[in-house]
Amino acid sequence: APGPALAGCAGALGAAVAVDLGAGSSWRQWRAGQTGGRFAGMDTAATLRGFALVLFGVAPWLREPGSTDEARGLERKDSSETRTKNALPPDSRPSMSVRMKRIRPYPDIVAQVEENFHGRNSVNRRNRALNKYNAMKGKGLLSKQPEPSKLDVLADELDLARPRRIKQVPCGLPDLWPEPDPRYPEVAFAGRSNVGKSSLLNALTERGSVARVSDEPGTTNMLAWHRTGKIGMDFVDMPGYGFATRARVFGPETIEFVKTRPNLRCLYVLIDCRFGFKVADHEWLDELGGRGPIKQIILTKCDLLRPKVLIKAASLVRADLEAHKRVERKLLLVSSHAKTGLHELRCDIVRRVVGAKSESDLAGDADEQPRDLVTDAGGAD
Ligand code: GDP
């Protein structure tokens, strides 16, 4: 901003004047003592003027750093007003880089990134921690590790599953969609084109080839069902959205599918961690409103940002999702390339799918998320 910069220049100039007049007059006083001449006196008023300018210059920097709300482009107001402001078109907010500078990270996101080695260079950091762990284990310094939970076991089974495609139909032909089968609860994956959806779906099941990967934006233009018999569930691969030429592909039928499909347990919305929420993401979530299943945000390509930057980017996404209904507040962070966060995502899928089949099955599991992690700003439309 030019304001503080100009004030800074004025401050620097003031400081120079103060030093010149203040120190200069001291020097003249000393010379006058030496030569027995007359001393004109220190120019106190000019010195004070200089100091006032200095204060004026540094004042903007002495100000408290902006609050988290300010960084999110919000004024500090009560929660209902905050929501209304948040619902404004994202264009009316400061740019992402400005918000990135101002955001104060959420402590749970900091812990999540650090504990799971998310971010650039994650493989090396994970290996170093593993070596340390093995060394301590070798020396018998570790207490006995707890048995893996049932959820962990099922997540590992999902990893080894071989999903196969059972149906692939164009979005606009609802008559061709398979009948909902209660034995196969569904989870759907959606995101802007090129967000890394195909790569993630492929990485989720190491042996399956759920979706094809392409460098070309928007090549997946069908709704595709992939079934895994091992867990008893279907992945629904939804087309990418957000490119002008594909705007109509992701039409009202697909929105209706998400809103009304009885089998759908969760909609995973993928967001590229480098760009955060874009207009297309806001539009799509606004369109869904409080209808349909719970939405879970997944931040993709987390290996591309340094951990500190990733923490800020994830915090911005968390701040942005407050504007939407029925969205889980906890974010999932993944990288299909570095293979981080995949186990957590598998656990999340299994928890929703198996939980849907037998609620009591996983009762008391440590990974069960508390109710207050869900934003439910107003419930159904
Ligand atoms: P889709 O259009 O959403 O299906 O995206 P793709 O899965 O085809 O991925 C688009 C591009 O992003 C490809 O060049 C991928 O190699 C790249 N990509 C996908 N996932 C990751 C990731 O986790 N890390 C990095 N660095 N690149 C990724």
From TrEMBL:
InterPro entries: G_ENGB_dom (IPR030393), GTP-bd (IPR006073), GTP-bd_ribosome_bio_YsxC (IPR019987), P-loop_NTPase (IPR027417)
Biased composition (Basic and acidic residues): 69-84
Cofactor needs: Mg(2+)
Keywords carried by this UniProt record: Cell cycle, Cell division, GTP-binding, Magnesium, Metal-binding, Nucleotide-binding, Septation
Record CDD domains: YihA_EngB
All residue ranges annotated as the EngB-type G domain in the record: 183-355
Pfam families tied to this protein: MMR_HSR1
GO biological process: cell division
GO molecular function: GTP binding; metal ion binding
Disordered: region residues: 66-96, 358-381
Entries under Gene3D superfamilies matching the protein: P-loop containing nucleotide triphosphate hydrolases (3.40.50.300)
Keyword RNA-binding part of the UniProt annotation: no
Protein family per UniProt: Belongs to the TRAFAC class TrmE-Era-EngA-EngB-Septin-like GTPase superfamily. EngB GTPase family.
Protein name: EngB-type G domain-containing protein
Source organism: Zooxanthella nutricula
